[in-house]
Amino acid sequence: MHEMSVALSVVDQVEQAARSRGARNVQHVRLDIGELAGVVSDSLHFCFELACAGTVLEGAELVTRSVPGRARCAPCGRTWNTGMPPDMLCPDCRAAATELVAGRELRITEVRWAAEPTAPGLPGATRATRATTLEES
């Protein structure tokens, strides 16, 4: 199942970031998922819960946002939503799209965790929660 490998990768990246910042636990993770990425959101949520078991993410909420597919036509410069299944012909000049500019993302956009008061590099670490943004390569 593709979604399980995605969930495991997200958990691994967030767990490494949380531990390096002295986090005790992760409260939620936000992901942008392109509609053309081939990820089924319901399956990902299920797999995420399983992948979090026994980690600092156990009990964390997964919040997902769908990013529409967008294409750009090289000949005329028009940009449009591709839809699903994707329509890759320019609605203006009917040329084949030469660039997919959005819709294949799978990006961690925010992580909220509880920070340890002694965590290095966390100014004002007396606050109970921290939000950060991580980019998945």
Could you please describe the fold and organization of this structure?
The protein has 137 residues and is an alpha+beta fold. The chain has helices at residues 2-20, 41-52, and strands spanning 23-34, 61-67, 70-72, 79-81, 99-102, 106-115, 129-132. Helices cover 23% and strands 31% of the residues. The two termini are 21 Å apart. The model is unreliable at 122-137 (pLDDT under 50).
Radius of gyration from the CA trace? 18 Å
**Order of helix and strand elements from N to C terminus:** HEHEEEEEE
Strand order of the largest sheet: 2-1-6-7
| Principal-axes shape call | elongated
Proportion of residues in extended strands: 25-35%
The SS-based structural class is alpha+beta
Q: What is the tally of helical segments?
A: 2
Overall average pLDDT: 84
- Outline the low-pLDDT stretches: 122-137
User: Which bin fits the share of residues in helices?
Assistant: 10-25%
Largest sheet: 4 strands, mixed
Q: What is the CA–CA distance across the termini?
A: 21 Å
Count all strands and give the number: 7
Brief overview, please?
Helices cover 23% and strands 31% of the residues. It has helices spanning 2-20, 41-52; strands at 23-34, 61-67, 70-72, 79-81, 99-102, 106-115, 129-132. The strands form two sheets. The chain has a four-stranded mixed sheet. The protein has a three-stranded antiparallel sheet with strand order 4-3-5, with no helix packed on it.
